[in-house]
Amino acid sequence: MPFLKSVSFPKLSGSAFPYNVPSIKNLDSIEFNSPVTFIIGDNGTGKSTLIETIACWLQLPHMDGNSYSKESFSAARKLAMDLKVEWNIDLPTGFFFRAEDFGDYMNSVDRKEVELRRQFDVDDEVDEKILQQMLDNANHQKYQMKRNYGQDLQTFSHGEAYLHILQKQLERKGIFILDEPEAALSPNRQLSLIHLIKNHVKKGNAQYIIASHSPILMAFPNAALYEITEEKFERKQLEDIDHFFITKSFLNNPEIFLDEL
After folding, report:
1. What whole-number percentage of the chain has pLDDT above 90?
2. Helix (H), strand (E) at residue 78
3. Are 35 and 2 in contact (CB under 8 A)?
4. How would DSSP label each residue in 141-171?
5. What residues have CB less than 8 Å from 69, skipping those under 6 apart?
6. pLDDT tens digits along 178-200
7. pTM value?
8. N or C: which end of the chain has fewer CB within 10 A?
9. CA–CA separation, 142 vs 156, rounded Å?
10. Cβ neighbours, 10 Å, residue 165
């Protein structure tokens, strides 16, 4: 049984952004009757705004910690005041993962190392391994990375580091909200993520809410699929989702599509 039963906006306090995005203005309520729920829609329909609002209301930890004070969460903070949440089991723990946070996180570790290299006034003859050890010891962000994820993720490819972070975070009990987790993953790695989530859900201690453009991910067995358009917010079958239909049609006849562009 999913921990979170439903979310809705019983009253809205404005008509400008973020209240006018389709995901908010067209939303009656979302029923979470499956352990895995996908929120699907074109760019600009407000998928991220909606799931950020849920994560903010739950105060789920994310890669920057627990605070939702960043400017990028300003819309979520406003909407969270109107959000109505119903529970099957009161368990607001888990993790919130945004693809953009991953990039910011890795870049912050790199920037800190560049800054420290400039600060360290060492002789050119100092062995690079010794210098690197000095940098690692001084770089608190890299220390935290190794403590949280078991190793230095800078030695991984972008996609491998991304999936490794997800693997470590998705081992716990709770609600996991993912915003476009396919962003850095190849099709094969997306299948690896499906395998990871399937095994987690089998244990009966996890619920997932995922915003995605990926037809591969949204084919997750028995997932609930909600599609957002300018006019509606409704539950659909996989074959009726625009992303799935367009991708399948293109792969079946790419020449026809490309000739029309």
Report:
1. 53
2. helix 74-80
3. yes
4. HHHHHHHHHSS-GGGS-HHHHHHHHHHHHTT
5. none
6. 999 998 899 999 999 999 999 99
7. 0.84
8. C
9. 14
10. 22
Find the length of the chain. 261
pLDDT digits (tens, 9 = 90+) for 53-110: 999 999 999 877 778 988 989 999 999 999 999 998 776 689 999 877 776 666 666 6
Radius of gyration of the chain from its Cα atoms, rounded to whole angstroms: 21
- Report residue 59 as tokens: 């105060």
Average confidence (pLDDT) over 215-226: 97
In whole angstroms, what is the distance from residue 214 CA to residue 209 CA? 14
Residue type, 203: K
Measured CA to CA in angstroms, residue 182 lies from 41, 105, 159, 213, 246 at distances of 15, 17, 10, 8, 18
Average pLDDT, the chain: 84
> Closest by alpha carbon to 246, among 215, 203, 209, 202?
215
In the DSSP assignment, the letter for residue 241 is -
The residues that bridge with 241 in the sheet, in sequence order, are none
Q: Which domains does the chain have, with CATH numbers?
A: 4-99+170-260 (3.40.50.300)
Question: What average pLDDT does this structure show over 27-44?
Answer: 94
Query: Max CA-CA distance within the chain?
Result: 67
pLDDT (tens digit, 9 = 90+) per residue, 100-152? 777 666 666 666 666 656 666 555 555 666 555 655 555 556 656 655 665 66
Structure tokens at 19: 């209240």
Q: Would you call the peptide bond into 35 cis, given omega within 30 degrees of 0 as the criterion?
A: no
CA 111 to chain centre: 23
Q: Which amino acid is at 188?
A: N
CA distance 36 to 226: 11
Q: Residue 51 has which token pair?
A: 């799931």
